[in-house]
Amino acid sequence: MTAITHRQPTPTTDVLETPMEICWQFDYAIDVEKLRNLYAKAKEQQWNAERDLDWGVAIDPSKPIIDEAQFGFQALSVVRKLSKSQRESFTAHVAAHLLSQFLHGEQGALMTAAALTHAVPDYEAKLYAATQTMDEARHVEAYQRYIDKLAMIYPMSPGLKDLIDATLTANHWVKIAIGMNMIVEGLALAAFHNMRRQTTCGLLRRLTENVLRDEARHVAFGNVYVGEAIRDMHADEREDVAQFAFEAVKAMVDNQGGVDGRGKRRRDPGFGKVLAEVGIEPKDFLESLLEARKAGLEFERPPGQVHSFKDLMMPALVRVGAVTERARELYAAAQIPVFEDASVLESMENAATGAIDLDL
Ligand SMILES: [Fe+2]
Ligand SMILES: [Fe+2]
To answer: Could you give all domains of the chain from N- to C-terminal order, each with its CATH number?
Structure first.
């Protein structure tokens, strides 16, 4: 079958084909009360990225928008050798690279949320997924506006692109919810939480706080809805979902150089450009990383930072039953620990569902 595209592909488009089944639902009764609550909360908490943030503030793109003291790279000799202005430029470009990943990731989230709206079988889940689609559109808009002010944009990291592509082209909505609402949004929730603490820019802090509130609701959807669907599945189908989750986690861990980030990371041409901006050779950067590790200098997270894998992603997968007994053997063989403590995750979700104030 030939794909029909509205426009001819261009260097900025990338067309995927998906095997997804989409589903009408003519029973408009609401069975899942928690989903109704999430939908109600989502409607109340809609915000307008254009009107509700002060875009008039000036940003000096040559100055870091992240507090350098919170920045693990300062421990590297190759970075310490830079002049003050080069170091500032390096921090500014690393921040722009990270924010570019937020922007591209948000576009992926926009498309997965739209796919969920099509494919989920329940009426109230379609309503909820439609609100998530709007949330993600707003996030794309907000980060695009911010990056426009920085006037620096980097391409999407191949690891993030592959993870979201695998999610978008999955054949079942439960896999999409696992790939996006648990794995990618687990990553995003921690990254946003940490960015909110690290940034020195008031506009970026307020933007990120607003996004965080929405994202916590998206992660909560995974728990409220997906767990029940997985419990109701035939055992073979459940194993298929567990296999998908394992492969997505393994790909993410491999991209990041292992669970502790100490192994070989997947090459990211965009980050190569960041290094080139300040004249650091990738080879020297890697050597400096190894040297810092040998010297026992670790990239410890400052207190209060959230670890996406340990605190959000794995506990979310375990809680919904996406880590079966068979899958545990796969995780063990791949030396990926299965973290089960969902307390950090739950406190973020409670904030999203209104049980407590968002503790930022
Ligand atoms: Fe988002
Ligand atoms: Fe989201």
So the answer is: 33-352 (1.10.620.20)
